[in-house]
Amino acid sequence: MPVLVMKFGGTSVANLDRIRRAAKRIGVEVAKGYDVIVIVSAMSGQTNKLVGYVEETSPLFDAREYDAVVSSGENVTAGLMALTLQEMDIPARSWQGWQVPLLTTSAHSQARIEEIPTDNINAKFGEGMRVAVVAGFQGISPEGRITTLGRGGSDTTAVAFAAAFDAERCDIYTDVDGVYTTDPRICSKARKLDRIAFEEMLELASLGAKVLQTRSVELAMRYKVKLRVLSSFEEQSDEAGTLVCDEEEIMESNVVSGVAYSRDEAKMTLLSVADRPGIASIIFGCLSDAGVNVDMIVQNISEEGRTDMTFSLPTDQVKRAEKALAELKASGGLNFSDLITDMDVAKISVVGIGMRSQSGVAAKMFKVLSDEGINIKVITTSEIKISVLIDRKYLELAVQALHDAFDLDKAA
Amino acid sequence: MPVLVMKFGGTSVANLDRIRRAAKRIGVEVAKGYDVIVIVSAMSGQTNKLVGYVEETSPLFDAREYDAVVSSGENVTAGLMALTLQEMDIPARSWQGWQVPLLTTSAHSQARIEEIPTDNINAKFGEGMRVAVVAGFQGISPEGRITTLGRGGSDTTAVAFAAAFDAERCDIYTDVDGVYTTDPRICSKARKLDRIAFEEMLELASLGAKVLQTRSVELAMRYKVKLRVLSSFEEQSDEAGTLVCDEEEIMESNVVSGVAYSRDEAKMTLLSVADRPGIASIIFGCLSDAGVNVDMIVQNISEEGRTDMTFSLPTDQVKRAEKALAELKASGGLNFSDLITDMDVAKISVVGIGMRSQSGVAAKMFKVLSDEGINIKVITTSEIKISVLIDRKYLELAVQALHDAFDLDKAA
Q1: Which residue of A has its CA nearest to B133?
Q2: Contact B150, B72 (CB under 8 A)
């Protein structure tokens, strides 16, 4: 029988009523003849609570113990979903990550999926089981310890299962009814997109649009997994939500498809480091080893053989970065005069595959921000996106102004 | 280095502050030179919450999914305890049941421990780890699914680890400062015992004294594990709490050591079953297969080849028992005219190894209850205990009257 993957996020399994509602959706697909693999998140708020416990207990925590703690919420919803389906007379059972086993790297709290053996679950489908409920977000390392895939990792679990089981489609049920031109909570004119290209979705996801984890989009693009984002709170037609697909499948689109933002950014500047080959590799190698995800990097003009190095990173990794750089300095690995941290910045990005063929987007973006009196601190660009760092207090203003300027409230 | 097992119950790890307090106690033992194995329960209330989810989702639940859900609370506290110890610079890591692996039978929700391999944890002790934090209550079945050991199962986990690692002692930290002559909440004259014999503790535990799980006491008795029950909320001396030990180690004791009660009992009577050999085996075999723990059994005098069969069981297993007996009747396996269930009974027991050598205890017990106007519904006796079923509304009255009558407020 064809396989369908359905993923339910935290708000879609927030309590027993919502789990029942999700189970009914699953029942509809089972009745159509699919063998269904369901990926569940933890009940909403649960993972945040567990992360809070860990951070309060140990600010620079052992990531192996972090993973052991924060993965537990998904185990609860997986079991409850299996029980709910059984009550509806649908043969179902739960799997935890280590039972599949979903094999990952040892990069705790940020592990990558290495392999998903299918024999175990397929054998159960062969025996008449109709739904395999899998705890999302978690796997097992080569050392036999529990790993997690990073926040939002259940999306990646879902796409990886869809690829491994050659699923017909991967439906991501969430609390929004699709992908929007920007976050409707801060811009009332935001508009739902019927389709969006993998590349655009990838940029939006990595830029802070919370609807899908970046790596899930990467995986879907690589393995050609048809990915649909839709609401678990509305009656569904086959055309509901937003389909993430190849750009060839999109007839018309605006030059800019969306405006993304990331609120929890920090900017760090290393003052007066030696301007010589290899210095960037030392700095960012050290940060990478410490598990810091550096995003934008700017190197200022050199004076007298010294230069300043600026980079951005998530605010919650600042402590980790400061510790790593202080140790590097103490060990003589790097010389710098000071380290300046700005915790109050945000990143705004405009994204669109149309930028490839149309020029002037960057110039227009900078003018819009300038007209609003917003100072740009750092700029980076790629083929289909332009990102800037600005003071966090201007975030809403910037998003609204750019949404208006690029006519995102109107379909192409 | 000598090994010490320390078990912390739900109230002792109810929040991060209490986990820190427990970690300090552990630190004291580490400083004395012990390698410590810590067994943790879930934060208090957590397991009840999860059991509630399961029962609301599916009243006659699949016990495999029940286990997958309710075992998750211990994973959280195990990780948090390891992190807390690490913050105190004590090398520690957590183990979930399947990681040890703690091998059990497949009797889900009531599994028995089959084996605890020690090589994995001992190897880490060899590498300098000082504390192994193990999630209590859970194990893994031969089929690779998560099992649990029954409510209070973390005590059994602790004693089993103490036996497997040949520990010097097994300290059970809880919210009371020892074993009492009866429950202080319903009898203000209850007195803490310094020592109690394994056999007495076993009877008290199986009779409803919540301080230790019955099987943990059985295990401790069989493997001669020195078991100490003490409070995690008080400063500890080496003589704190109650030591559960061989009766030879107890110099003097009262005839009766304690009065136990069990509030959530039900009484079921099968009316007019055939009075022939094998009938009891059919009835109680069927109930056992359904996972019902029958306690007291009484068979009335036979009339015209028919008899009534009465038994007691926990109230939460009544539905299960009714279903099993109805199915047995429907399949022609057993003929009876009616099944009467009384949900409002309680069991009161007096326990003491002194009963072996002193007669008249039963007569005195029945007179005390009779003087209070309490009707006895069912009686069972063993070498060191007498139990009766009475109306639940007389529970407190009966306990207080018996405690007075047997002078339990005074030491021997």
Answers
A1: A65
A2: no
**Pairs of residues, one from chain A and one from chain B, whose beta carbons lie less than 8 Å apart:** 105
Longest dimension (CA), chain B: 76
Interchain CB contact of A387 with B (< 8 Å) = no
Partners of B231 in the β-ladder: B174
Are A58 and B86 a contacting pair at CB < 8 A?
yes
How many other CB atoms are found less than 10 A from the CB of residue B346?
Answer: 21
Longest dimension (CA), chain A: 76
Question: How many CB atoms neighbour CB A281 within 10 A?
Answer: 10
Specify the CATH number for A3-249; select among 2.30.40.10, 3.40.50.360, 3.40.1160.10, 3.30.420.40.
Answer: 3.40.1160.10
Q: What is the ipTM for the molecules in this complex?
A: 0.75
**pTM for the complete prediction?**
0.77
Choose, out of A19, A47, A69, the residue to mutate when testing the contact with B (most B CBs < 10 Å): A69
B210 touches chain A (CB under 8 A): no
Q: How far apart are CA A294 and CA A316, in angstroms?
A: 12
Cα separation, B149 vs B399, in Å, equals 30
pLDDT tens digits, one per residue of A338-383: 999 999 999 999 999 888 888 889 899 999 999 999 999 989 888 8
Helical (H) or strand (E) element with B138? strand B138-140
Which of A76, A77, A93, A120 is the mutation pick for testing B, counting most B CBs within 10 A?
Answer: A76
Q: How far apart are CA A394 and CA A373, in angstroms?
A: 9
- Residue pair A313/A289 in contact (Cβ under 8 Å)? The answer is no
DSSP three-state, residue A117: coil
pLDDT digits (tens, 9 = 90+) for A199-244: 999 888 777 667 788 889 999 999 999 999 998 877 767 678 999 9
CATH number for domain B3-175, candidates 3.40.1160.10, 3.90.550.10, 2.60.270.50, 1.10.10.10: 3.40.1160.10
